[in-house]
Write a structure and sequence with these properties.
It is built from 10 helices and 9 strands. The protein is an alpha/beta fold.
């Protein structure tokens, strides 16, 4: 079974291991250059930087959301400059509880690379423990990653529109409660959520110290959210298809299996003003 989480201690022991590749995915939605600045100021030795907007997303059209999925071949070309191959253990980290690193985790899994894990506790824990920090950018390394997109891993807006009326399915929105309810919206032009979607804020998957909750605790919490719906009959969204991956990760960490992602999420949904919108703390 592939590991989902790597501890800081375990990663520290593999910093010089050519079979491990580390990616720094630090990002700020309101300041796209914050991640590159932070990386330049210091990162885990040997880590490559991937930008959420430029490396982990594709071109925006105005109607396909704020972080549409990139072209698989273009993403593979980027990853292949960092030495990723079939047997490579990839480790991703950020400074916000894995909320951006999960995008890389999900994308690699979606494209057929199973050996990818998150650094539990991320950059904040690494720094707190006074582990080594570097400023040097690692040189390019040839990789052999070949993308093989997994069919059925994603759904589109028309699918979601049909699914929200299906009593045997579950839509889950990973945004903060205020954004879900439409009480606060600072990013997208319309406030609210897709009617029928329940709210599970991605930070609820973490303990207060920024590490993931134990599998048993996550399992109990997610079973209560799904209310008997099989995980594979659930679709996960957020503002733009990034933090939704945190809930997908938590489901797998809980041992409940895989679910599907709506990559366009709320930012794509609300770009079409004819689509239904709900506000308030309840699904409908």
């Amino acid at each position: 079974m592939e590991k989902l989480l790597v501890t800081t201690e375990e990663l520290a022991q593999h910093l010089d291991d050519p079979a491990w590749v580390v990616f720094d995915t630090r990002h700020e939605l309101t300041d796209p250059e914050a991640g590159p600045r932070a990386y330049a100021e210091g990162h885990i030795p040997g880590a490559y930087f991937l930008h959420t907007d430029r490396d982990l997303s594709g071109p925006k059209t105005g109607t396909n959301g704020r972080h549409p999925l990139p072209d698989a071949a273009a993403f593979a070309a980027r990853i292949n400059r960092c030495g990723v191959g079939p047997g490579t253990q990839v480790v991703a980290y950020d400074a916000q509880g894995g909320s951006f690193a999960v995008r890389l985790w999900w994308m690699l899994r979606w494209l057929g690379h199973g050996k990818v894990a998150l650094l539990d506790g991320g950059w904040p824990l690494w720094v707190r423990e006074k582990r080594p920090v570097a400023r040097e950018v690692p040189p390019d390394r040839p990789g052999t990653f070949v993308p093989k997109p997994r069919l059925g891993a994603t759904v589109d807006a028309p699918f979601v529109d049909r699914m929200r009326e299906d009593a045997g399915a579950k839509l889950v929105d990973a945004r903060a409660a205020a954004r879900y309810a439409g009480a606060q919206e600072t990013i997208d032009p319309v406030a609210g959520h897709i009617p029928g979607a329940v709210n599970r804020f991605w930070q609820s998957n973490l303990e207060a110290d920024g590490r993931f909750k134990e599998a048993a605790k996550l399992r109990d919490e997610w079973r209560a959210i799904l209310e008997g719906t099989p995980p594979e009959r659930s679709v996960h969204m957020c503002g733009s298809g990034v933090t939704a991956c945190h809930n997908l990760f938590a489901l797998e960490l809980a041992g409940l299996g895989e679910a599907r992602l709506y990559p366009g999420s709320w930012s794509e949904w609300c770009a079409d003003r004819s689509r239904a919108v709900a506000t308030g703390p309840d699904p409908r």
